[in-house]
Amino acid sequence: MSVPNERNRQAVALAYQESERAPRVVAKGYGELAERIMAEAHRQGIYVHDAPEIVALLMQLDLDAEIPPRLYQVVAELLVWVFELSDEGLKRHD
User: Does the keyword field hold Transmembrane (predicted)?
Assistant: First the structure.
């Protein structure tokens, strides 16, 4: 997820595994570091979502921290949407 304003660019990367209770912050940064996080996501074919409000909240978390329960719903909805996009893309290539 990222914030587009060039001067204040921010990015947060989340990871989730079924064995974990909640997604966790695996990378975050401002400016050039944010650009590198987004570039790596694109390179790996990972969807980058532009959500300034969510990014602002996630930037407050420590690296490797699980997202707090108050963000479960919004992050879950985003992940479902991303998974649906992935499934649609795979179906088109079949």
Answer: no
